[in-house]
Fold NADPH:quinone reductase.
Amino acid sequence: MNVLWVFAHPEQASLSGVLRDEGVRALTEAGHAVRMSDLYAMKWKAVVDRDDFPEETSPRLEVASASRRAYDAGTLSADIRAEHEKLDWADTVVLQFPLWWYGMPAILKGWVDRVFVKGFAYGVTDPSDGRTLRYGEGMLAGKRALVVLTAGSREPAFGPRGINGQLDLALFPLLHGTLWYTGMSVLPPVAIYGADRMSAEALDAAASLVRSKVLSAATDRPLPYRHQNHGDYDGDLVLRPAHAPGETGLAIHYRAGDR
Ligand SMILES: Cc1cc2nc3c(=O)[nH]c(=O)nc-3n(C[C@H](O)[C@H](O)[C@H](O)COP(=O)(O)O)c2cc1C
């Protein structure tokens, strides 16, 4: 595998840092290639602004519309182009972070905002029929994405009836709305629960879990999300009544029988 590991934690000496080192060591010892985007260490700029498009000189151009422009690598800042080069190289992308307020730390959200620009990560159409390629198809199709996170909550609270919601559904905006949207195959997230109070045994188990899940990333079964363009959705992108009849909620976007 060619693994791009995107790491979003301010402290190298954190639990997250220990787990990252374990995962990277396991991968490299097994002969895989790993490149790291350690966002805090890189002092990654987390907000989209005009500096992202240094070649764009029109004073009338709004930043928001600039970020939606068709991809033209020459107009993008060097730090974004460097991440594109790493993503082009990678067949597997690991996003690792501590769960903060149900989501990614802002620096990682900002990596997604700035790196996943139109024409690189989304916004392309199938020339044969004009359909927009997204949700299972698109620019990043063929790559696998694995989320590795630590969370303060204990595991039952992220279970089917847990107060946080089931983890894969709580992470729906990232897993489905971002990674699957861009075409990537999304692996079940790997979570280390109860991360604020860990015994030595629990830490060993967590390291072992991370090592094994990164090593099996090429072969593990991705989450069985439905493709946008394979017939399950109508023209308004609403799931057709024949699928998951009478059901609502985020889990209907898993293929029947695979849930
Ligand atoms: C700003 C902030 C927000 C947090 N939000 C959540 C949360 O929504 N759910 C949760 O289970 N834990 C939450 N936590 C706990 C962290 O997930 C936990 O401290 C971290 O994963 C421990 O790993 P670390 O030692 O590598 O930082 C939060 C912690 C902080 C500092």
User: Anything to note?
Assistant: The chain has a mean pLDDT of 93.
